[in-house]
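Thread: Newbie trying to understand structure tokens

Hi all, I'm a second-year student working on a class project, and my supervisor (Dr. K.) asked me to get a predicted structure for one chain before our next meeting. I've only ever worked with sequences, so writing a 3D structure as a token string is new to me. If someone could post the tokens and maybe explain what I'm looking at, I'd be very grateful. Here's the chain:
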Amino acid sequence: MIVWVNGAFGVGKTQVAHELRRRLGRGWIADPELPGFGLHRMLPPHLRGDFQDVPGWRVGVRDVLGRLDADDATQPVIVPMTLVRDDYADEIVEALRIGGHDLRHVTLVATPETIRRRLASRGGAVRDLWAQRQIDRCVTALTAPRFARHVATDGRTIDEVVEDVAAGLDLPLAHGRDGRVRGFVRRRAVQLRHVRLP
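---
Reply by user tm_fold:
Sure, no problem. This is what the structure looks like when written as tokens:
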């Protein structure tokens, strides 16, 4: 099974993906940003745009997810990635489904104000300036029926969101919630591991 965790940049996809994996007690997180930033580093800054526009990124992500899904040791494969273009969703998500993969999609949603606040709390890195410019585009695109099931994140803890996601996807959680301090430390560690410099 592939679990695609969609949502605007800064809505909390990575945190939810990591906590979902921890609470399931199994799975593999496949982050499509990693090859995307690798492609960026191959290009001079003036040629860098949205790495999703590179056809090789879309083909590579689709192929790697298909391989991971075929391996019992990586189940479920959890993919935290913003995907808002219909044609790119067809090329990756729908192609995997047509290929026989059980791909379940969930979109985390929040108000633009909440997303701006979350991005600001990450420290204002250069890439977050780009993410802030994408908020309205993403929030609007992700209201489309093809990007449902929607899970609201405004005013909710990561635990509440993870439990909602797991219940909606019929994934039983093997582990309970962390305590306040341990949860904070775990979330901060995830955040620090995912700082991407331009």
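A couple of things are worth pointing out once you decode it. The two ends are 32 Å apart (CA to CA). The beta strands are 2-7, 28-29, 77-80, 103-109, 150-152. Feel free to ask follow-ups in this thread.
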